[in-house]
């Protein structure tokens, strides 16, 4: 196998494929779709972040504007946490439109993340959003199929293939040459999208956020290049295995439908069937049941807190909670927050384990489907996948817990234990300057190391597909026939 011959076949395929005027019309349509996707993606990113930052500022102003007040009332007054829209969300929307971006933070309650775009949109969203990633994942493979379906089958039908083989060309040179030629054509469509993302990075550069965006883009770029080579090679292999171009085209369209629609939907359905999740009502009811059994801080006759009170009184050698050196109600609220937060995390961990099992089915299917593999890599590296959403949820709940416990500490320290229990009146308040001392919520993107951990199975499957595709080219080169 000589490289000069491979290059010759690649250049020849390039010229033949790019000569027809229909190719330039197709390229123009793709560029227009790219421009539309880029403009809508940039506009959506800018709008979403401006709205979320504006409301985060308003939530902070509302928090600081509170007058002198009882700390526990402030804990229930709460605040909001808004998720920052990732810069690579311009490229791949992922699950951003479905997972929500805002959560209300208050004591004793772990509220769900709300206000997703899907809740405000019409039924049109179910048809998908046209993103730059979608063009590369779904549209470009179709273009490559239509461009390369006759790459070998056409030469076989018109007799050119027999002439090439009789003049000393080998099947390896023909298959690899045409695969590289088709891959080079795919770069014509890929490079404009890459340039758009790079320009977006320059426009929305934020030195305060270390999200490894350039490294993430590098991994995304390499992964898509490998994916496009796999698609190009599969196209040539199917063409070489077909007796006529129309048969090759039908097979390629069948492969596209199987890998893009049937297999992903089947994997999701099987994951949901094998690992069913409890309803939201059942999930919350289970937590409340455990809280009642463990100890309810708002129940004055709760056995757990009666025992706790007796223990505290014994340790401090006093007979009444009003004789303690701290506010006992704040101490009870602090203990109650520990219990409820611990129980919530326990149930949340079990729930996330079910979701992980469901997602593992999809992850496993990527070893049979390169379209699933590239989709998972793209979403994870872009920060628009499910794990990034859970990361935000965990950080928001950590901030909520810190807020509640800080208010409880203020109650223990500044509310006199001699005062009767309650939160009304000027005798049960602390200065409003403490509200300003508590730092505002600031969303940090998911750590790059965690993203790599989540994307590793998909990266491994892409590597597997690369090796398998090269092996398939070598295998077909020994079995293919010129007629």
Largest sheet: 3 strands, antiparallel
End-to-end C-alpha gap: 22 Å
Shape: elongated
Q: Return the structural class.
A: mainly alpha
Secondary structure tally: strands: 3
- pLDDT < 50 stretches: none
Number of domains: 1
Computed over alpha carbons, the radius of gyration is 30 Å
Share in helix: over 70%
- The topology string of helices and strands comes to HHHEHEEHHHHHHHHHHHHHH
**Helix count, per DSSP?**
18
- Kindly state the mean pLDDT as a whole number? 90
Strand content is under 5%
Strand order of the largest sheet: 1-2-3
Walk me through what this model shows:
The chain is mostly helical. The chain has one domain. It contains 18 helices and three strands. A three-stranded antiparallel sheet has the order 1-2-3. A hairpin with a 2-residue loop joins strand 2 and strand 3. Helix 3 runs antiparallel to helix 16. The protein is elongated and about 105 Å long. The model has no long low-confidence stretch (mean pLDDT 90).
Keywords:
single chain; 483 residues; mainly alpha; 3-stranded antiparallel β-sheet; 71% helix; 2% strand; elongated
Write the layout of secondary structure elements.
Blueprint: H1 3-18, H2 21-64, H3 71-77, E1 79-82, H4 96-99, E2 102-106, E3 109-110, H5 117-120, H6 132-148, H7 153-158, H8 160-166, H9 171-203, H10 213-240, H11 245-274, H12 280-294, H13 303-316, H14 328-365, H15 370-382, H16 386-414, H17 433-437, H18 448-479
Antiparallel strand pairs: 1-2, 2-3
Helix pairs in contact: 1-9, 2-6, 2-9, 3-16, 6-9, 6-10, 6-11, 9-10, 9-18, 10-11, 10-15, 10-18, 11-14, 12-14, 14-16, 15-18
């Amino acid at each position: 196998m000589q490289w000069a011959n491979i290059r010759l076949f690649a250049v020849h395929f390039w010229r033949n494929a790019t000569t027809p005027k229909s190719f330039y019309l197709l390229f123009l349509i793709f560029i227009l779709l790219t421009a539309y996707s880029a403009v809508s993606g940039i506009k959506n990113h800018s709008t979403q972040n401006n709205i979320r930052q504006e409301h985060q500022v308003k939530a902070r102003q509302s928090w600081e504007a509170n007058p002198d007040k009882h700390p526990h009332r402030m804990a229930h007054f709460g605040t909001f946490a808004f998720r920052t829209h990732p810069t690579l969300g311009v490229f791949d929307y992922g699950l951003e439109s479905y997972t929500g971006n805002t959560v209300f933070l208050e004591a004793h309650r772990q509220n769900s993340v709300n206000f997703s775009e899907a809740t405000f949109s019409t039924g049109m969203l179910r048809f998908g959003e046209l993103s730059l990633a979608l063009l590369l994942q779904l549209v470009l493979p179709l273009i490559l199929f239509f461009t390369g379906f006759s790459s070998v089958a056409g030469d076989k039908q018109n007799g050119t293939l027999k002439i090439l083989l009789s003049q000393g060309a080998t099947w390896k040179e023909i298959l690899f040459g045409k695969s590289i030629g088709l891959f080079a054509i795919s770069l014509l469509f890929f490079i404009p999208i890459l340039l758009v993302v790079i320009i977006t990075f320059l426009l929305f550069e934020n030195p305060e956020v270390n999200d490894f965006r350039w490294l993430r883009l590098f991994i995304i770029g390499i992964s898509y290049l490998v994916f496009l080579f796999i698609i190009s090679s599969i196209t040539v292999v199917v063409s070489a295995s077909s007796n006529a171009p129309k048969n090759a085209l039908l097979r390629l369209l069948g492969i596209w439908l199987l890998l893009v629609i049937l297999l992903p939907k089947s994997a999701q359905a099987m994951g949901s069937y094998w690992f069913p999740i409890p309803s939201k009502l059942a999930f919350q009811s289970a937590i409340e049941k455990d809280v009642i059994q463990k100890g309810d801080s708002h129940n004055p006759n709760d056995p757990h807190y009666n025992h706790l009170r007796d223990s505290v009184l014994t340790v401090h050698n006093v007979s009444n909670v009003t004789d303690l050196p701290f506010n006992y109600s704040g101490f009870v609220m602090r203990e109650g927050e520990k219990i409820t937060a611990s129980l919530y995390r326990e149930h949340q961990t079990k729930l996330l384990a079910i979701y992980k099992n469901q997602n593992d089915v999809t992850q496993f299917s990527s070893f049979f489907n390169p379209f699933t593999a590239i989709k998972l890599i793209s979403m994870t590296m872009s920060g628009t996948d499910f794990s990034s959403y859970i990361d935000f949820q965990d950080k928001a709940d950590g901030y909520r817990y810190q807020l509640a416990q800080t208010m409880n500490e203020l109650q223990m320290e500044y509310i006199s234990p001699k005062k009767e229990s309650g939160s009304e009146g000027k005798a049960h308040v602390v200065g409003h300057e403490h509200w300003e001392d508590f730092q505002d919520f600031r969303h940090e993107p998911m750590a790059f190391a965690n993203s790599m951990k989540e994307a590793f199975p998909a990266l491994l499957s892409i590597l597997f597909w690369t090796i398998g595709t090269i092996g398939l080219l070598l295998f077909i080169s020994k079995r293919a026939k010129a007629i």
